[in-house]
# Entry
Amino acid sequence: MRALRRAQQRAILSVLSERMLELLREASMNPDKIPETPAARKLRLFLEAQGRKKGRAEGEAKGRAAGEAKGRAEGEAKGRAAGEAKGRQEALITLLRARGLAPSPDDEARIRGCADAAKLDRWIARAATATTVREALGTRTQSARARPRPPGRSRPTPAPRS
# Structure
């Protein structure tokens, strides 16, 4: 088969002029120098457009799939965290009631409004030994809170002992 092809190439090249052979050599070295017919140009542009269209569709599909996977993972993580927080909230309220400490509606709202797992765990641990709901939640009365200091004033230093 190769031998036949080479024989055909030799036959074709033998009828070409030196000038034409030189043009073919140049063109084979640089495909951009091959003249393009209007029909060939139209076909090339059509195929390039089809390739871009297919590439764009594939890229959009990949991006959409990646975005959906990321969104699903984030949603699952948020849902899991919310579920864990709700479980801790219910555990805390149940523990307080089981110990005979009735949380007020404000206390319950504060507990149900907290999504911080670490804080809920601290409250649960305190509720195991607390004697009041305030103690369990770490709530201090206004009079028990330290009074705010005016800006620029430091704590008074104790007098040196003699």
In short: The helical segments are 2-15, 18-29, 38-98, 105-112, 117-127, 133-137. Confidence is low (pLDDT under 50) at residues 141-145. The radius of gyration is 41 Å. Residues 49 and 141 are 73 Å apart (CA to CA).
